[in-house]
Design goal:
Distance between the termini: 36 Å
Number of strands: 5
Number of helices: 12
Largest sheet: 5 strands, parallel
Oligomer: single chain
Length: about 350
Amino acid sequence: MSTIRAKAILRQLIRDLIGKDSYRGVTLTYSWLANQVGHLALGFIPTVILYFYMLRSTTIENPIVIAPLVVSGFWLLFELYNVLGPLLLKRKSASAFLYAPSKKYVFPPSWRNLAYDTFTDLCFFWLGACLATLPIEYNRTAILIAVLIIVILILPVTYWYVSKMHQQAAGYPFQFRLAQFDKEIPTHKQNVFLFLKPSNPPKHLLIFGSKKSGSTSLAVGIATEKSISHQRCTYTTAMKLFSMFSESEDNSHAKDSNLWTWRNCSLLVVDDINPGSPVNDVISPATFLHMLDAQREVNRNALRNKSVIWVMGNQDSSSKGWCALLEILGIQPRDVLVVHIS
């Protein structure tokens, strides 16, 4: 269930609909809304064009019915082609119009989530095709179908809009789904699946990998899956987190622009703890603990009571030190998972 209140959703919707994006930037929620308006238009405009073409250049009967059906059918086939091709084909595609991966996914796509997204897009295509007939000719059936599609869209629109709010509130440096991750994970790959499962007490995941190994991408991908399931996630770097350790609880409460903080989120991603090879470790477990204890009990409780993804540098002797640090914070060894990326 969403942790975002209706008031915050309405506030974000007003921000997306009112104002110029040319000077304030584009949010994920705004982009999603614009995308769906595009789907609506791609159903509406071709239907109008096809209707007048059939009316003036063909002898087809009932173009007011045939045109929206043809356009709706086209987009249905297009979406099936667009989705199933890249997911099902295991060989590299020679087609210039369809991408198919040359190797298997490291982590499988979320089929249900992808199907739900495709269904939402199709509903907007079909709604646009249906609405295109109404200015041309009054049609009670078309009105009923349009109303039915709008009612069906209430839940998907709410879900996807709130999902985008969760993603943008997390502050990820880029958009990345876990299925996009294509690096080798020689050991402990199953720990990623264990971390994704709901657990009580929460889990801590240590990701070790050198520069450009994909450690940040893996962390963002895992957290994005959590955001899409409407969990409160926060992304930060170790240096930024140090600056927030000294904030009092009163000053760190979520304000108008932030829905939650690092202390009251359910998943925290701490990136760039160490840069990795060829640079030696910059932040040691002792240094981190010293900075953490700027407000000892508040900060320790905050880390102890949430899931955390720790993005480290290379695997070395310090990995035991970080595991020991988590034990000092009161986190049991069974709740600490480790992943090494080649």
